[in-house]
């Protein structure tokens, strides 16, 4: 970008599942309203920008995935800037701002953003605006919205400084023909891309009828007995019900959707075309790992991969494709008024008049697929609608009260209500449409705002040395209890898997590979996950500590199966000490893999098995959770990790367990090595850097 283009800046995003891209696009759309021109690109598209020659401000929006890893789209960029041969002034010309997305349920919060930020600083780049760290665990918008709001003033100041700096080196009144043309081009872009103001005062645009409805809502903040009414998804209470609202701008539409009677190009909505990188495999068995009276059931799933070239290591994860519930697709079709068009083929193209920069037809939607196929396999219809989607629904809502409530939910003033009634309750589009009866969005709006249906990841609970041609997964069916906002339902993938294996599911105590599963025709599509570091050490003599309560023990079963086979085949080799810390609720109900683990102890594969039971009657001194077990063995743990260069693995729940285990590790180091907490935290960070503290966790 030439330095003469004084109001133009670049937005770069690195996104795994679309969050960072969506926020970057929102910044791009708002830019024109504030007098700027924004160019936008995925950070992976290096051919579309050149940071080495970039003279305008740059805004980065990047997410973090896995165990603090960059998203796939940012891997190449991060590797590039980490090149140690780059001089310390390589980006001394660069002025940037960075918005990092993460989740505090995971240990390496916003790690990708922090990595890029610190490395750019090392290479001489300068901040023009403070870095933002948005937490998906509490709600991204809590940080994102004010960060974007403050960005515009920071850009204005930056451009003013750049303009003053440029003028010092230019004779006043010497304006070249080229600069005049550039300014004209900027103004033309601004004029063509201008859209409505980002924040509208609702009182400036509401009708007299809307005012009257608001007044009625305020006067009815108590029930017939005089008791105060509580806020709900469809109803607000003062002061929000009487407030002026800052409502976001309407997101620009960018898709034209046409439904035609021409035949669709797939077998049926229950069968997915084989996607690139995926393998189609059959289920060869399934069994209960827990008793019927367990609080939460665990299922072992065995898949037959003997006909596929799919090598894997214990600890590898696999992406499993699942489909949306037929009943939910059916209801969504009915609610959209498209029930009779389910078999028509869908044709998508960009609107010629769209003001959305970088708009593209979604690549994950096959051309000429049927409408039913699209809603079944392509879109995440269970996803929680973002505020931009709620804002878009406002304009397709007829009832003035419902319209007002949707405006509240997407407004700055209604953020608490949005979090309480939409985000925290895992509301989906269908739930919103059931609650707001007069809302009838077009299909194009639904496709524009619903994200791609993502595969679900499961860790391998087996070793191919022990089970050649097979791979095992363990899962528990996720339950979402009924609430005012939505009916009871099960997790999309776990419920789908459970439904399909229920007919061949073996009872507790039986093996998954049973005769009655032989003719099972249920197929899964799997894709091995790349860049996985959650593996056994390359040096088998290194000791390992495994922490995996509940179904978190799954990958460690694979580790131990692998280690057992290696010990049988390589009897002269030296193998390191093995520790496993496992926890469950009840000893006799949900101690999964108990018999196999005890056999590993008997044959010497597992040297130390430490177990806690959180719901059993304890005498007060017994450990209740895995972190308590670790603390009991603090001396051994510190010796293994820092004297013997051992490896520390954690698998399971990120929200509570992983945090508690991390805190316990810091406490152990502090106590045993007589260090202060800061030094202990640095030692834990060093373990992570050396890839000797590895996590496979989920929220």
UniProtKB/TrEMBL annotation:
* Keyword Lipid metabolism on entry: no
Entry GO MF terms: [methionine synthase] reductase (NADPH) activity; flavin adenine dinucleotide binding; FMN binding
| First-tier enzyme category under EC | oxidoreductase
Q: Which domain of life is it from?
A: Eukaryota
**EC numbers:** 1.16.1.8
Q: Which GO terms describe its biological process?
A: homocysteine metabolic process; methionine biosynthetic process
Q: Does the keyword Cytoplasm apply?
A: no
UniProt entry keywords in alphabetical sequence:
Amino-acid biosynthesis, FAD, Flavoprotein, FMN, Methionine biosynthesis, NADP, Oxidoreductase, S-adenosyl-L-methionine
Q: Which SUPFAM superfamilies does the UniProt entry name for this protein?
A: Ferredoxin reductase-like, C-terminal NADP-linked domain, Flavoproteins, Riboflavin synthase domain-like
Cofactors (names) = FAD; FMN
Residue stretches making up the Flavodoxin-like domain: 9-152
Q: Which residues form the FAD-binding FR-type domain?
A: 276-537
State the CDD domains in the record.
methionine_synthase_red
Tell me a GO cellular component.
Answer: cytosol
The name on file for this protein is Methionine synthase reductase
Provide the species name: Pygocentrus nattereri (Red-bellied piranha)
């Amino acid at each position: 970008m030439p330095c003469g283009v004084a109001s133009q800046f670049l937005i770069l995003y690195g996104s795994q599942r679309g969050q960072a891209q969506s926020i970057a696009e929102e910044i791009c759309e708002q830019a024109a309203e504030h007098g700027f021109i924004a160019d936008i690109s995925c950070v992976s598209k290096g051919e579309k920008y050149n940071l080495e020659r970039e003279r305008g401000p740059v805004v980065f929006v990047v997410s973090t995935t896995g165990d603090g890893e960059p998203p796939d789209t940012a891997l190449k960029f991060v590797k590039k800037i980490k090149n140690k041969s780059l001089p310390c002034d390589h980006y001394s010309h660069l002025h940037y701002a960075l918005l990092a997305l993460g989740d505090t349920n995971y240990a390496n919060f916003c790690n990708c953003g922090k990595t890029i930020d610190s490395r750019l600083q090392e290479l001489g780049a300068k901040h023009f605006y403070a870095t933002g760290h948005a937490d998906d665990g509490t709600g991204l918008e809590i940080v994102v919205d004010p960060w974007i709001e403050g960005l515009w003033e920071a850009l204005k100041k930056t451009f003013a400084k750049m303009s003053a700096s440029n003028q010092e080196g230019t004779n006043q009144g010497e304006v070249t023909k080229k600069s005049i043309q550039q300014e004209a081009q900027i103004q033309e872009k601004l004029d063509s891309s201008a859209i409505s103001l980002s924040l509208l005062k609702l009182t400036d645009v509401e009708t007299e009828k809307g005012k009257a409805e608001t007044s009625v809502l305020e006067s009815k903040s108590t029930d017939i007995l005089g008791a105060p009414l509580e806020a709900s998804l469809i109803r607000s209470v003062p002061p929000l019900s009487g407030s002026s609202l800052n409502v976001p701008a309407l997101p620009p539409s960018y898709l034209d959707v046409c439904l035609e009677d021409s035949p669709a190009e797939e077998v049926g909505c229950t069968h997915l075309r084989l996607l690139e990188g995926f393998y189609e495999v059959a289920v060869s068995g399934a069994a209960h790992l827990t008793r019927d009276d367990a609080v939460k059931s665990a299922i072992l799933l065995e898949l037959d991969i003997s006909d596929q070239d799919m090598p894997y290591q214990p600890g590898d994860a696999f992406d499993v494709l699942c489909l949306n519930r037929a009943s939910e697709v059916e209801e969504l079709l009915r609610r959209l008024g498209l029930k009779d068009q389910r078999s028509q083929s869908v044709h998508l193209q960009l609107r010629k008049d769209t003001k959305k920069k970088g708009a593209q037809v979604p690549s994950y939607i096959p051309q000429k697929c049927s409408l039913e196929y699209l809603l079944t396999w392509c879109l995440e219809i269970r996803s929680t609608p973002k505020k931009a989607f709620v804002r878009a629904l406002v304009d397709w809502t007829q009832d003035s009260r419902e319209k007002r409530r949707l405006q509240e939910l997407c407004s700055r003033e209604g953020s608490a209500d949005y979090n309480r009634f939409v985000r925290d309750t895992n509301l989906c589009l269908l739930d919103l449409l059931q609650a707001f009866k007069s809302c009838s969005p077009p299909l194009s709006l639904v496709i524009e705002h619903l994200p791609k249906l993502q595969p679900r990841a499961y860790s391998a609970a087996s070793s191919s040395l022990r089970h050649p041609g097979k791979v095992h997964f363990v899962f528990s069916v996720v339950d979402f209890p009924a609430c005012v906002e939505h009916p009871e339902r099960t997790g999309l993938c776990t419920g789908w898997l459970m439904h399909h294996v229920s007919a061949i599911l073996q009872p507790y105590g039986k093996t998954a590979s049973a005769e009655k599963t032989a003719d099972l025709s249920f197929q899964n599509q799997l894709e091995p996950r790349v860049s996985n570091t959650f593996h056994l050490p390359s040096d088998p003599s290194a000791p390992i500590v495994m922490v995996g309560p509940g179904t978190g023990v799954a990958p460690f079963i694979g580790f131990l199966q692998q280690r057992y086979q290696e010990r049988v085949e390589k009897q002269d080799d030296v193998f390191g000490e093995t520790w496993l810390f496992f926890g469950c609720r009840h000893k006799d109900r949900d101690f999964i893999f108990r018999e196999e683990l005890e056999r590993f102890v008997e044959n010497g594969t597992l040297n130390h098995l430490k177990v806690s039971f959180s719901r059993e009657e304890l005498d007060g001194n017994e450990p209740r959770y895995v972190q308590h077990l670790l603390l009991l063995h603090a001396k051994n743990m510190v010796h293994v990790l820092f004297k013997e260069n051992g490896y520390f693995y954690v698998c399971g729940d990120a929200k509570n367990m992983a945090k508690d285990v991390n805190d316990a590790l810091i406490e152990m180091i502090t106590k045993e090595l007589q260090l202060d907490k800061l030094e202990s935290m640095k030692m834990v960070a060093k373990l992570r850097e050396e890839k000797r503290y590895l996590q496979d966790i989920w929220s």
